[in-house]
Every structure is written in structure tokens, then in C-alpha cells.
Amino acid sequence: MSTPHSPKDSLIIFDTTLRDGEQSPGASMTREEKLRIARQLERMRVDVIEAGFAAASNGDFESVRSIAEAVKESTVCSLARANENDIRRAGEAIRPAARGRIHTFIATSPIHMEKKLRMTPDQVVEQAVKSVGWAREYTDDVEFSAEDAGRSELDFLCRIFEAVIKAGARTINVPDTVGYNVPEQYAGTLRKVMERVPGADKVIWSVHCHNDLGLAVSNSLAAVMAGARQVECTINGLGERAGNASLEEIVMAVRTRADIFPVETRIDTTQIVPASRLVSQITGYPVQPNKAIVGANAFAHESGIHQDGVLKHRETYEIMRAEDVGWGANKLVLGKHSGRNAFRARLQELGIAVETEEQLNAAFARFKELADKKHEIFDEDLHALMSDEAVTPEVEHYRLVASRFHSETGETPQAELTLTIGGRESRSQAQGSGPVDAAFKAIEAVAASGSELLLYSVNAITTGTDAQGEVTVRLAKDGRVVNGQGADTDIIVASAKAYLNALNKLSGNAEKLNPQL
User: Fold this and answer.
1) 326-367 per-position pLDDT tens digit
2) Phi first, then psi: what are they for 97, rounded to 5°?
3) What is the dihedral of CA 271, 74, 221, 515, to 10 degrees?
4) 197 versus 348: which is more confidently predicted?
């Protein structure tokens, strides 16, 4: 066991919010949104940013390439299946990176090899070795993952890991792809492969845990104690099914229990809450109030005994300081009298790129409109405002021009909307059980999308009765699921914006592959 004064190993934080996190239903992000998150991850000093799966689509390729061009301090990584086409696409996408990595994977469990790959174990090993060789044509930083390692046979894991290490892989990832393992078992697997695989001391051992049984963080931390020195995780634990190991929980567990863990990270923890809020806003996945570290109640005390204890001495009931993870940094940045230069400078500080003067002028005009409605403008407000501005005319088939709502006790609520659809203005009106329902029906009266509403969620972006409401709408059609977001000080307007945003995503081209790991 380490002590606070013992030399500590570095624990590499590998963030896959932009790849695995994006596989949450409806959580697809635009290139601009991914860039904003990547810049925040870089600001937080994340070691490796998995920017995407370059072979999934042309849009994913361009997103990975843009992040590789923009990020200078973190390693930028692209995922690739163990085939030549995927790896070459990944290699081209990361080519501009100051530090680039290719992360290739193939399934190793009996059920995956037989039922999914339809390959023999010998063929799987041969393909893995070839893939590492192709990846090394682009970078020396190659990571290999054994998909579904948590259900793989130990002897076969040792065999394939030995082979890819000889081929030049520098990081070996042992993922619990379906969240099947428990901590003691998972840590035991790590120890055994590290003991048995020749060359194990020459590579970084990595873990990637899913949360199907709620054990992703526990399994990851148990693996760290067993010798893993890279943890793959996401902001807010975002990810398909039940999600991934939560970055903020991993980082703060290691930091808070420095007496237990023989490792330390280079993460700037004060950037955790801003990162959490940004990812939540962009993806439309709200953070539950009792979520560890970043939930609204994470540092709240209602019990009189707890309140009394904290007032007398914080550490009686708080093992971390709220300000250490970024709480209390809800910084007032601008007001109605702020000028364009101050507005531009603050956007740059937040990592929000404005490519043209026309975009800046449009965003500044919207900022002034917001400042007339809302006295105090916070960073979160600017992120929400710029999310609205990020939609380009080519993909904005639907846009809200004007709205009028009527709701009165004893009367049926009504909505009257003016929209542009494909550049042409259209007016619509409808009644509903409430003004939001009426607004959605008015939109559908002219859009006739045939989509199904799966989720409607409202959250306040900041505090106060003049706060912007942020609405998330999840729509499904023909097997596709998308999230739409809208923000406004008028929650009904925000709702209409969110619905239209979702329709715009449904009308766009979203052909892509979603590999699991």
C-alpha cells in the first residue's frame, strides 16, 4: 500500500466521450460540438481523447481530423476495427495530430468469435497481428483491445496479447464490454495476464468497463490496484446501455484516497463540473441530482445533523471540497452592456470557435437579445446560445421564426407558429392538452414527420427565475433515435426549438457504424 509520500505511478486518463459516449441513444454530436468538448477535455488535461471512429462515416472522419488539427496537448485517438480499411481511415484522420494514436480491436470471447466474427481463434490472432502492423505504418502509439475480454478464456487472452505486443502494440486494453465482471474477478484477470504474458512489463495495461451491473467504476479501480495504468472512461459516465465508467468518479477516487491508490493523474479537477455541464447540454442527457461529484446534490446537506457538522468542520461530512471539482465557478462573464470584443474573447476562453465575422455577428445579436431578457449571463448560457448558432443553414431544414401561445384556465391551450421549412415560410396552429403539446402538434401539422416522441425533459441552465430553460426532445423514426435541444427564457419557445432541432437531425444523413468495445 502506498503512502502520501510514496512515489506514485501516472494513471493515464483515456476519455471516450466523443466515441463510446456518443453511442448513447440520440447522443450524436456535430463536428462543432465535438470540437467544443475536445477543447474542454484538453483544458482539463485529459491524456488521451478518443475522438471517434473514423471509418463510421465521412462526418466521423472529418470530426476526428478536425480534433486532431485543433488539440495540441492531449493525444488524439481514433478507434478502428481490425481490418485494413478501418485502420487506414483512422491513420489518415489522426495524421495532423501533434500526438496521434490508433486503437484497434477484435473480439476474443468464444461467443463473439463463433457467432459474430465466424472466425477461428487462429484467424483472430492472425488478424490482430496484421492490424497492429497496419496501424504502425501511421504511428508508434498503437493500442489493441480484446473485445469482450471479460468473457474470454484466459489462455487465449494471453496468447493474443503476446502476439500483438510482439507486433508493436504499446497499450493493451482488457475491456469488460458487456459489464459482466465483478471487481475481484476482473482484478484477478488483470493480474494473471500481466504475470503470464511475455513483454507485459513493456506495455501499458488499460481497462474499459461498462456499467450494466453498476460496477464500471468499481471494476476499473480494482484493476488499477492490480496494475492497470490506463482507465478508459467518459464524462458523466455517458455511453450505450447503462454507460461507461465515470471519469469524474475515477479521478476523484484516486485523488481523495491517495492513501490507497499508488497512482496519480494530471487532471485539472476544477474543470470537471464545466465539462460535465457542457457534455450534458450538448448531448441532451441531464445529470441526475444525486450523481457523485457532478450532481446538483453532490455537496448538499439537508439533515440538520449533517448541516451542523459541516458548519463546525467541513470534513465531518465532506471528503472533497466542492470548489476542487469546479463547483462555485458559475462565473458571471457578460451583461447587456458588454461589447463584441468582450463577447468574442469570452467565447475563445471557453474554447468556442467562431469561424467567420458573419457567425460572430449573428451570435452577438442573439446574445444581446438574451441579455435584454436575462440580467446575468453565465458561461452555461453562452454554451447554450452557441449550440443554437452551430446549426448551419444546409442542415437547418426547419427553423422557428415566430410564435404565439395562449393558455387560460378552463380554455384549450393553443399555439400559432411561423416556421421556415426548406427556406419557405409556413404558418400553422393547433390545440393541445397544454401549450407545449399544442406547439408540437402545430409543428407536426406542417412537418408530418411521422416520428415518435420518446422523451421530453426540461432543465434550468443556471439558477434564478430568469434562467434559460433547456429542453431535450428525443424522437424516433425508422429505427433512428435523435435528441434535439433548445434553450430560451420562455420554456415553450425552448420546447419548440428542441423539437425542430430533433427534426433537423432526423432529416440529415446519419449513416454510420457503431462498434462496441
Assistant:
1) 886 445 567 777 888 888 888 877 777 777 888 888 888 888
2) -70, 145
3) 110
4) 197
Determine the pLDDT at residue 373. 81
* Known binding-site positions for Mn(2+): 20, 208, 210, 244
Query: Which range (53-67, 117-131, 383-397) has the least confidence?
Result: 383-397
**Residue range 298-318, pLDDT digits in tens:** 877 444 444 444 445 455 556
Which secondary structure element, helix H or strand E, spans residue 362, and what is its range? helix 357-373
CATH of the domain at 465: 3.30.160.270
The Cβ of residue 260 has, within 10 Å, a number of other Cβ atoms equal to 13
Beta bridge partners of 277: none
Task: Look up residue 305 and give its three cell numbers.
Answer: 445533523
- DSSP per-residue codes, 143-203: EEEEETGGGS-HHHHHHHHHHHHHHT-SEEEEEETTS---HHHHHHHHHHHHHHSTTGGGS
User: Of 217, 252, 283, which closes a domain?
Assistant: 283
What is the reported pLDDT for 302? Answer: 47
Please state at what angle helix 379-389 crosses helix 357-373, rounded to 10 degrees: 130
**Cβ contact 1:260 at 8 Å:** yes
Query: String of b and e for 244-254 (b: at least 16 CB within 10 Å)?
Result: bbbbbbbbbbb
CA distances to 194, 332, 400, 498 from 367, rounded to whole Å, are 55, 14, 17, 19
Element (H, E) at 379: helix 379-389
Structural domain includes residue 515? no
Q: Is the confidence at residue 510, as pLDDT, over 60?
A: no
Q: Would you say residue 215 lies in a domain?
A: yes
Residue 174 φ/ψ region, left for φ over 0, alpha for ψ in the -120 to 50 degree band, beta for the rest: beta
- The CATH number linked to 86 is 3.20.20.70
Task: Cite the beta strand spans of 319-423 per DSSP E.
Answer: 332-334, 377-378, 398-406, 414-421
Q: Whats the size of the chain, residue-wise?
A: 517
Domain total of the chain: 3
